[in-house]
Design a protein that fits this description.
The chain is mostly helical and about 140 residues long. It has 7 helices and no strands. The longest helix is centred in the middle third of the chain and has 19 residues. It is elongated and about 65 Å long.
């Protein structure tokens, strides 16, 4: 999982950096617009495939650090300003990365539950062993 998370963060960083001078540093664009573009471009790149990730606390922390670094940059808040992460998220009207992860996982589970019984993802999630034991 470490390599996957690192690769996703690198791709998210590339997407964020591509908009650096055109959007994030642009003073004529509202914070709301910047946050919506961030959600549409950077978060979708960062969390692509996250519905099937099995994450440790370490991975969530890495994703959260990247997310907060981006949101602070968008809002123009430096770490020296001593503004809490909660306050920064409130100012931007966005939630933490863990909420996005849970939302995507719940969306996927809801999709699988509504699938017909013959579909492989549903069989993998809800199937039972005919014989054998759990290790």
């Amino acid at each position: 999982m470490d390599d996957d998370i690192t690769a996703r963060i690198a791709k998210g960083c590339t997407a964020f950096g591509g908009l650096q001078h055109r959007l994030w540093c642009e003073h004529g664009v509202s914070l709301k617009t910047k946050v919506e573009v961030y959600r549409a471009v950077v978060l979708t790149t960062l969390l692509f495939g996250s519905e099937c990730w099995t994450l440790c606390r370490k991975h969530v922390k890495q994703l959260e650090q990247f997310h907060m670094r981006c949101v602070r940059k968008i809002a123009g808040i430096r770490w020296q300003d001593r503004v809490s992460n909660t306050r920064v998220l409130e100012m931007c009207g966005i939630s933490g990365i863990e909420a996005f992860l849970l939302q995507s996982q719940f969306r996927w589970v809801g999709h699988v539950v509504r699938m017909p019984d013959f579909r492989i993802p549903k069989q993998a999630c809800f199937g039972q062993l005919a014989s054998g034991c759990r290790l």
